[in-house]
Structure formats: structure tokens, C-alpha cells
TrEMBL record:
Gene3D superfamilies: Methylmalonyl-CoA mutase (3.20.20.240). This is Methylaspartate mutase epsilon subunit. Coiled coil: none annotated. Its EC number is 5.4.99.1. SUPFAM superfamilies: Cobalamin (vitamin B12)-dependent enzymes. InterPro entries: Cbl-dep_enz_cat, Glu_mut_E. The keyword Iron does not apply. One of its GO terms (molecular function) is methylaspartate mutase activity. It is an enzyme of class 5 (isomerase). The keyword Transit peptide does not apply. It holds the Pfam family Met_asp_mut_E. It comes from the Bacteria. Keywords: Cobalamin, Cobalt, Isomerase.
């Protein structure tokens, strides 16, 4: 057990580290690691730092902390229960500083990942713990994860941004990453993912943040994904002048391949996507993803596999992609929202109330629920229904979505990668 105390933690700027790696031509790779035991977490961070790749560390928090039930987290620690992440608030800053001491610093920044629509206690715990980087968003950490009213989440995240910005100090620029590029993880056409990532970044900077990252989660088709990441870059450059920002790609967030070969190939495709499109950071997944929480060794193997894939991939010249119309669609959504109010938070609330933003298959009461995405015959995401959003549906080839059809669509990537790995897909899996 780590000894509690005021262990020194070197200050680090997350955005600066990623910028230096990008300037050196290296993709930063990052695990989704989180353990409730401080010794195990410290060992995981040490292994991440020692991996043969350019890495940043992660503290993924537990479910009790995400919903603000710190009493339950503390009770679990008291009886020695194993949680599904690190209870940052319950452990307290002294224990966390001991976890980070001698590991975190300019050469190895650490980010907190959680998923909370009520992030106040988490953000308040960062500074005393020696941490300054996290992720989230008023929409993306609300709609897919629970039933917290969107209005409450927007207000919670406004205060969270302002509190995080107060951690600014010499050599330390607080950093916040949007989760808007993921949302439900599957069956959301890329234009909406890009738009929400941009809108959440604008929300962050309105409330004091000067260093942000914009996420995009790998979807079902490499070429469609590449166009989406370039669209995200274009809009970020246009709308975030003077703000330090980079693009982070999430390895596929849906039903994951069950074969080691299929899982590894999906990770490699994510790394290739990041390098081809100039994204600066990649969140990895492991071969154990379909079955359980990965071990430290499996996380390190994933980091190193992603790095190898990245180093054998060359960046591709930026071209005006318009095969799928993603930039135009995302721009239309962003502009429609920003016209509703000067403040991005009020604009987001009005947009969801009017259905101008509408996340497909999301059952949250504040989501209109009139939009639907589908996979076309080539496995590309399309709009079947767009409700009141200012984008057009592609009705060609759409069929009524049945329960069986939904399950088939949700397992499309898993089946495609596993069949290729088992040699039962004559087409294989390529870009």
C-alpha cells in the first residue's frame, strides 16, 4: 500500500507534450487504464511510461465516482472491494500524489478520464492531486450516460470548465478533451460527431480553457473516417483561432472483435487513420476488450502495436474531401446551433429542445429521438432519418430498422474483422 503524504508531482502541460511529439513526427498513444488499488495503478502508469512508444498516462475513474457517490466508493475501499476504476475523490489527494510521484511530469503527463455529467467533485480533486488534464463535455457526458437533465449538465460543465481553468500556473496549461466525437459509440453518422466535438470545444473555450483536444471515434469505414477527421481539423482551425488544440482519435468504441487478430487489426486501422489524417493522439483498445477489463500487460501490448502501425504509416496530403459531404454537413449543424445564442451552452440547449441536434438511438428525455443512422451496403454510415436537423437524409437503400437489423448493424465491425482474421471473408480488411 502506498504511503500517504504530500509527495511532489512535477507540473506538466498535456497540450505542450502532445504538440512536441507531433512536431517530432510521433503519434502519442494512450491507454484507457484505471484500477482502484493505488499500487496496481502506479504499476500500470510505470509500465505505460516504459512502453516502447510515445505515451501519456491515464487515470480512468470508477462508476461510483462518475455519479458522485463518493460514500459508496469509500465503503468499497474499506472492505477491499475491487472497483472498475480509480476512485479519485475517495482516495484523496495525498494518495493520488503518491501514485504519481516520480512518474508524472513534463515527459509523462497524466489525464483523468471519467464520464460524469456531475464533474464538480472530480475537477476540484485534480489540482490538489497534481493533475491538470481531463475529458468530458456538457452533451457527450450527459446524453449517452444517464438521465441527468441536459440543462443541469450544461451548468455543471460550465462551472467545471471555470474551475479547471483556475489551475493555470507557470508551466501548466489546464487541458480538456471533448467526448463529443463519440456519443453513443455506434450508428451515428460522422457529420454529427464532428459538429458536437467542435461545439463542445467552443463551450470549453468560452468558459476559460486555452488548451483543448477534439475527439473523433473510429467508425465503420476508413475512408469515411478519414474525411471526418479532416473535417474536424478544418472546423477546429477556423473556429478556435489562438487556442492550443489537437485531434484525438478513439479506437472503435462499439462491439469489439473477439479474435486477437481481428482486435489487433482494428487497432492498427485506428493508428493508420490517425497518422494518415494528421491526428496527434490515439486512445487504444486491447485484444481483451470483448471479454473483460484489460491487464497492464495487455494495455502495454496495445500501445506498442499501435505505435508500430503508426510508424509504418505515412501522412497523406490534405485534400478537399467531399465524397461523403461530411464537412458541409458538420458545418451546417455547427452554424445552425451557433445562430441560436451567443453563448454555446444556451445554444446547445435550444438546439436539442428544437431537435436541431438529435443523437440517433439515444433515449435521453432531452433528445428528440427522431434521427436514425444506418449502414449502407458498403458498410458506411448514412442518415435514414434526420428529424429537424438541418441536414438531408439519404433514403436510398434504407429499410425499416428491426431489432434483428439493429443487432446486425451493431456487430458489423466485429463480424467483419473476425471473419477476415479467420479467413472466411474473401475481401479481407484493408483501408
Amino acid at each position: 500500500m502506498l504511503t500517504a503524504g504530500l509527495a511532489p508531482v512535477r507540473a506538466a502541460s498535456f497540450g505542450d507534450f502532445v504538440a512536441r511529439a507531433a512536431a517530432a513526427g510521433r503519434l502519442v498513444v494512450q491507454p484507457r487504464m484505471g484500477f482502484s488499488d493505488p499500487d496496481r495503478l502506479r504499476a500500470g502508469l510505470a509500465a505505460t511510461k516504459a512502453a516502447d512508444a510515445v505515451t501519456v498516462g491515464t487515470l480512468t475513474l470508477d462508476s461510483y465516482t462518475r455519479v458522485g457517490d463518493h460514500t459508496a466508493a469509500l465503503e468499497a475501499l474499506t472492505v477491499g472491494a475491487d472497483l472498475n476504476g480509480y476512485p479519485l475523490v475517495a482516495h484523496g489527494p495525498e494518495t493520488t500524489r503518491a501514485v504519481l510521484a516520480g512518474l508524472a511530469g513534463d515527459d509523462f503527463p497524466v489525464q483523468v478520464r471519467h464520464g460524469s455529467a456531475v464533474p464538480g467533485d472530480i475537477i476540484a480533486a485534480l489540482g490538489p492531486s497534481g493533475l491538470h488534464a481531463t475529458e468530458g463535455g456538457p452533451v457527450s457526458y450527459c446524453l449517452p450516460y444517464g438521465r441527468t437533465p441536459l440543462r443541469e449538465s450544461v451548468d455543471n460543465w460550465r462551472r467545471a470548465c471555470e474551475l479547471l481553468a483556475e489551475l493555470r500556473a507557470p508551466g501548466v496549461e489546464p487541458h480538456l478533451e471533448t467526448f463529443g466525437g463519440c456519443l453513443m459509440g455506434q450508428l451515428c453518422p460522422p457529420g454529427l460527431l464532428v459538429a458536437l466535438s467542435v461545439l463542445e470545444a467552443l463551450f470549453f473555450t468560452t468558459h476559460g480553457l486555452r488548451s483543448v483536444s477534439l475527439s473523433y471515434a473510429q467508425q465503420t469505414d476508413p475512408e469515411q473516417d478519414a474525411e471526418a477527421v479532416r473535417a474536424l481539423r478544418t472546423l477546429a482551425t477556423e473556429l478556435l483561432p489562438g487556442v492550443q488544440h489537437h485531434i484525438v482519435v478513439y479506437t472503435y468504441m462499439g462491439v469489439y472483435p473477439r479474435t486477437p487478430e481481428g482486435a489487433t487489426r482494428l487497432l492498427e486501422l485506428a493508428a493508420e487513420l490517425a497518422v494518415r489524417t494528421g491526428a496527434e493522439r490515439l486512445i487504444v483498445k486491447t485484444v481483451a476488450e470483448a471479454f473483460r477489463i484489460p491487464t497492464v500487460a495487455e494495455n502495454v501490448a496495445a500501445l506498442e502495436a499501435a505505435d508500430r502501425a503508426a510508424r509504418r504509416t505515412a501522412p497523406e496530403p490534405s485534400t478537399p474531401d467531399d465524397q461523403f459531404g461530411i464537412l458541409a454537413e458538420a458545418r451546417a449543424l455547427v452554424e445552425a446551433v451557433l445562430e441560436l445564442a451567443d453563448d454555446p451552452g444556451r445554444a446547445l440547449l435550444t438546439a436539442f429542445a428544437r431537435g436541431h441536434l438529435d443523437v440517433p438511438y439515444c433515449l435521453h428525455p432531452d433528445n428528440a429521438g427522431r434521427s436514425r443512422g444506418y449502414l449502407d451496403d458498403r458498410g458506411r454510415l448514412r442518415w435514414a432519418e434526420t428529424g429537424a436537423m438541418p441536414v438531408a437524409a439519404d433514403r436510398a437503400g434504407t429499410r425499416p430498422m428491426t431489432a434483428a437489423g439493429l443487432l446486425t448493424a451493431l456487430s458489423h465491425v466485429e463480424r467483419r474483422l473476425d471473419r477476415a482474421a479467420l479467413g472466411t471473408d474473401r475481401l479481407g480488411v484493408h483501408r
